[in-house]
Amino acid sequence: MTNLTDQQSLDIKAAREAVQPTRRTVSKGLEDILYEAIPVLDHGFIRVIDYMGDDGAVVQAARVSYGRGTKKVSEDRGLIHYLLRHWHTTPFEMAEIKLHVKLPIFVARQWIRHRMANVNEYSARYSILDREFYIPSPENLAAQSVQNRQGRGEVVGTEEAERVLRVLRDDSQQSYDHYLDLLNQDDTGRQIRDEERGLARELARMNLSLNFYTQWYWKTDLHNLMNFLRLRADPHAQYEIRAYAQVMLDILKKWVPHTYEAFREHRLESAIFSGEAIKALRRMLAGERVEHADTKMSKREWDEFVRTLQIS
Amino acid sequence: MTNLTDQQSLDIKAAREAVQPTRRTVSKGLEDILYEAIPVLDHGFIRVIDYMGDDGAVVQAARVSYGRGTKKVSEDRGLIHYLLRHWHTTPFEMAEIKLHVKLPIFVARQWIRHRMANVNEYSARYSILDREFYIPSPENLAAQSVQNRQGRGEVVGTEEAERVLRVLRDDSQQSYDHYLDLLNQDDTGRQIRDEERGLARELARMNLSLNFYTQWYWKTDLHNLMNFLRLRADPHAQYEIRAYAQVMLDILKKWVPHTYEAFREHRLESAIFSGEAIKALRRMLAGERVEHADTKMSKREWDEFVRTLQIS
Amino acid sequence: MTNLTDQQSLDIKAAREAVQPTRRTVSKGLEDILYEAIPVLDHGFIRVIDYMGDDGAVVQAARVSYGRGTKKVSEDRGLIHYLLRHWHTTPFEMAEIKLHVKLPIFVARQWIRHRMANVNEYSARYSILDREFYIPSPENLAAQSVQNRQGRGEVVGTEEAERVLRVLRDDSQQSYDHYLDLLNQDDTGRQIRDEERGLARELARMNLSLNFYTQWYWKTDLHNLMNFLRLRADPHAQYEIRAYAQVMLDILKKWVPHTYEAFREHRLESAIFSGEAIKALRRMLAGERVEHADTKMSKREWDEFVRTLQIS
Amino acid sequence: MTNLTDQQSLDIKAAREAVQPTRRTVSKGLEDILYEAIPVLDHGFIRVIDYMGDDGAVVQAARVSYGRGTKKVSEDRGLIHYLLRHWHTTPFEMAEIKLHVKLPIFVARQWIRHRMANVNEYSARYSILDREFYIPSPENLAAQSVQNRQGRGEVVGTEEAERVLRVLRDDSQQSYDHYLDLLNQDDTGRQIRDEERGLARELARMNLSLNFYTQWYWKTDLHNLMNFLRLRADPHAQYEIRAYAQVMLDILKKWVPHTYEAFREHRLESAIFSGEAIKALRRMLAGERVEHADTKMSKREWDEFVRTLQIS
């Protein structure tokens, strides 16, 4: 499913089998999955390539300690919750993770907007991309939302879905066929027209569409990983990048269980209430009945306020 | 050529006409071209939207002065050369520029790798892209280089060029036709099929190819602008991004003439010699005849060394 | 009070008087105070040296528009609130400000932790610092807090305050006397001992204490300025840096009134409620009486929860 | 010499003894010294706390490979030299190192200017600093340079050195005595005056001088570590920070031997020649006799040019 070649599978297997002793902090959860390709979408994957530190690295840095820096589990857990709740974010910058990701170009374009990370991308100036493109599954084919200009509405009907998928698939195949033609080579890498050289790779690639897969090494620290997940695991994020964020949440859980728990509690499941929202809350808790018109919140903010508090 | 709509031209004209007094440093060179669309490639442009500081801001910061911080022109010029030559880069971070750029997506993908900048890109999740794609002019259609895996070789022949351009043009048109079809609208924005809603914009866009134009606001400081130009105005950069860098070099010259001059002298026209290269140089200056085999330089480094020094 | 020399005052006056026309966005509020030294603490100041953009630059970037990008004031204001509330922070990176700040070294050490800014500091390797050190006013002399290891408790008594201030003042004077002695010069810059050269400046400075004043040029964007203010205008921040943040809040208000209002509403006066806090809120709004023991919040979080909602 | 307490030594010993298996890349050179305190100056140290990757991580990222990514040693070495020589710096961002550093505050103030790193510093708002301050050894006591405003000249004479050291030592001791007095505690942590609480720690610390030791956890990637070393291992850097850079160079050598070698060759021992310098070189190599007056180089640049090439 992740389309690994035999050679790639062998490389991964070999890397997994080479075990050595270390004095560093070891994360059991990540060692289990190290180097393995976790499938995402139809041809994508995430592989954990390396990591530095774990929950202990966070408390060790917060305490600027000489040893491992960890005390009793309950104290460490409490400290991590406290740090995250109060936005003391620098200790979370002390743990680091490196991923190998295969992803459609339009997802890569959203992803790269997170600048606090290190990236090495597979170069289509230098190499030739594979015939691999993303085609959504029918249940992810949604119409444009009516309420929200930036979002999806209802899933499209079966017949329409078939038509859409046929267009995407045909155009992608043709786009790749012509890419090879411009490069003057066939799928096996053999030259098509003897008499001439192919077009420069850096030019030919412009004929590929945004659903083609690219890949990169991506490295970031725990603080910035959580920033990424706060935005990209959010229901407002586009489904395709959310699929990657979902896998990364699982990785986070295996890597730093206390931080993961605190992140769920104080970021993913939390809500920010504005000054006006807090005033309304105080009145409501004092027994007053408060309507939108009684507040200075915008309609949009009020709707979210009502939804979060599950009041009707 | 830059395909501005009437409304866009009017907006630019109105912005240019609103002149106000300011106590800030004013760059005559940039005021002249402010807001204007300078054409790049077939449909792209660069517009200078705003700027902060000039050559004087560099010396003012280097001197942490109370007034404008500038002394005699010759002293300021000397200081700027000195700072740049010795990689004292922080004073150059004190001037800032903001551009509005329209560029093909594959160029945007290279450009965004420069992380030390602020970016707001036109959103294809939210809005619909125009029927605008980059088609190279025949003299920029080059074959893959034989020596250099990442580069262009000879320009392709006329007949072959015609074939290549036809493929690129036809695929781009079809790619956009189908994009509109997926969105269920025609070029004028009218619905095509009454009975159904179009596909979500965030999905439909994946059918577009990498030569379609996007646009963004891009802001960076003078130091990072020079970093960008050092890499992207270089002959090894891809022609298409170099076309933008070339226009930005002109902008740099209008904005900060002393810094521009120092940048040419100490970056663009400079060369770095390694420890081994310096040893070779010393022997050569002492009258010795030195061949590659007499040094520890790699073949590649030696070739560059010979080329830079124009020795045969 | 800000201890400007005559020459410095003249430099500032001259800079203020040079007015020129510009096509750029002009902030009336900042032009009024441009270059002026706004006093902070006993000898410090903040001066606005330059700026780029205003509220309009935020909406212009959010809309990637061709003209000024602003529409009706109410729409612009709504957009700014929306962006800030939803943490769409990149448009706020499109406005920039540059300050000249004079501040005690121990404040500078906290300040510099905000890395997303550009800094040029007065060099004590190169130049000689002035006899200027910070002495708190008696009402800011607080005892160590008993509840909070990182904070101040009650103001110290008059007699004790006098003793403390005498120690600080005497040590600072002596520290500076010896600094000059090591440099072999007196307050007027004249050599004390003819026969010898003074100690290198980069060494002599180590004898100065952390309350001595330094100064720097500091430049950041609107987004990062708000990040700074969110942390440093907070009651938990040390009084001395808060004094600077307070002045910067006034500057923010003059510069970008809509953003300032949204910042107050959605950052300064807002509160984050964790998943558990929201569960408790829902139960309370449904009429249930909820005690700390009924929740999974830590004692500390519960106390803040109660305080924010003003429930007893 | 590094003044570790018994508890600290035990903590370090315990951390070193806990060895576990890992699938990650292991650097033999760093494992040997992991956690150990390497002395710097009179009371400072550097401890390697953690690391991620090695030379192999650089080539793995440059090749975006599935396995370890390394080929033959000679190819890997060649690639690393090539990448460094051509400023392809992103692969070097893929290896990371974390240090625990104890250093004088005036050194910390220079160090922190390198923003591309993560820092957690020991908090003097929260905790009490130890009676540890830096006193230079006599051979590092230099007079102010006459040629260079930012630098040291000759070493001061024995008698004068004794006087200087006495001033520094006495003032530091008194500074700390009064710090404790303000805190109302003695060296053992016991209260001095029963009737009153001590001054808040965040205030009392301002009486300490800049030679007192602080400590922090500092983490950066290989690319930024080399940037730091290029500037701080340079002869123009202040001796005290150079002492740390020197130890870090040894660490670099143990960690990534190929990168270290390439760094020496293409950074530390390299020189940049400006456009004018290259023109001069070409003429000299063609047999012409070139004087300063025959070029457009500044006097300063010419002097460096002559020194680098060892021509008289």
UniProtKB/TrEMBL annotation, chains A, B, C, D:
Its EC number is 2.1.1.148. One of its GO terms (molecular function) is flavin adenine dinucleotide binding. DUMP binds at residues 110-113, 121-125, 205, 232. Gene3D superfamilies: 3.30.1360.170. Keywords: FAD, Flavoprotein, Methyltransferase, NADP, Nucleotide biosynthesis, Transferase. It comes from the Bacteria. GO terms for biological process: dTMP biosynthetic process; dTTP biosynthetic process; methylation. Belongs to the thymidylate synthase ThyX family. Homotetramer. NCBIfam families: thyX. HAMAP family: ThyX (MF_01408). This is Flavin-dependent thymidylate synthase. The gene is thyX.
